[in-house]
Structures are given as C-alpha cells and as structure tokens.
Design goal:
Layout: H1 8-30, H2 41-50, E1 55-60, H3 65-78, E2 89-94, E3 100-102, E4 108-110, H4 111-117, E5 125-129, E6 135-141, H5 146-174
Parallel strand pairs: 1-2
Antiparallel strand pairs: 1-5, 3-4, 5-6
Length: about 180
C-alpha cells in the first residue's frame, strides 16, 4: 500500500504547532520565582516589625542558580506557610542592580550600593533585619546543605522573633 505524500500545508501546520508547544514548555521550565524587590527598607522593616517578625532580605543575582533554589524552594513557600505568612516580610536585593532603594535611615541608595555597604560578596545571602536595620540573626550564606536549609531558615526566623521581643520589652521599659 502506498501512502499519500504529506501535503505542504499540513506539514507547515504540524511544524508550527510543535514549535508553539515546545516554546511553551521551555518557557515554563525557565521561569524565575519572583519575590518582591526591596524599595524602601525603612518602611518594609517597620511593616515586618508590626507583624512581629523580621524583614528577610535575599541578596541575589539574576544569573545565580543557587539564588533561584533558595527563592523557589525555601523563601516562596514561607509566604504560604500558616506559621510564617502573617509574621514576615521578604524582599530581594539584586547585587549588581542600580535599582533605587531607600535605606533603613531613609537615605536614597541603590541595590548595588546597599549590597556593598552590607559587605555581601557571594550570593545567595539571606539576612534578617529589625525595624532600625539591626541584624537579628546570623545571615545564611550560600545554599549550605539543602536538606537542612529550611531548618536553618526557621531557626533564624525564631531567633529574630525573640530578638524583636527583647527590643519591644526594652522600648516599653524606656517609656
């Protein structure tokens, strides 16, 4: 039995359909997990303090695959976790970006300048700040051991909350 040769129009339609499906799948795998960029550290840290939690900052770079893992697998899920979603504020600062930023003292800066001031060399770094920009817990540098990373993160958040409680008590006593 002889098969009819494929018509050019049919071949073209099938080829276009294949390309569209392939492009859609590729873009789905290439998506970057988004966390809000920091704009005003002074107001963002106060918002976190009102929630009785730390301002968590991910120092990152666009081309950093480990930063994406921290964002996607650890920080983004915290925003959905009932234990943390109403207690924390998470923002991202891009290491080499000239994006405008208001620092903890209300001064104009950029993401790159603030990153240098914080002496961030390698990324990812997850840092925990109080309402005045004070560090509340030891920053988590790098990806460390992925199986234990969530534990490091939760411990740092709990330590930050304890520090914020101490700050609140000190403020109450001084009034």
């Amino acid at each position: 039995m002889l098969q009819k040769p494929c018509k050019p129009r049919h071949f073209l339609i099938c080829s276009l359909l294949f390309c569209c499906l392939t492009a859609g799948l590729c873009s789905a795998f290439a998506q970057v997990t988004q966390i809000d960029k920091a704009h005003d550290l002074q107001s963002e840290s106060r918002l976190a303090y009102q929630k009785r939690g730390p301002l968590i900052i991910l120092f990152s770079r666009q081309d950093c695959k480990f930063c994406e893992i921290v964002r996607r697998d650890h920080l983004k899920p915290l925003l959905q976790d009932p234990r943390y979603k109403n207690r924390i504020v998470i923002r991202q600062i891009d290491q080499g970006s000239g994006m405008p930023l208001t620092d903890f003292n209300g001064r104009s800066s950029t993401h790159a300048t603030f990153t240098r001031q914080e002496k961030i060399g390698f990324v990812p770094v997850v840092a925990f700040y109080g309402p005045g920009g004070e560090p509340l817990a030891t920053p988590i540098v790098g990806l460390r051991l992925p199986d234990f990373y969530q534990g490091y993160l939760e411990d740092a958040i709990d330590k930050s909350a304890d520090m914020l409680g101490a700050i609140s008590r000190d403020l109450s006593r001084s009034r």
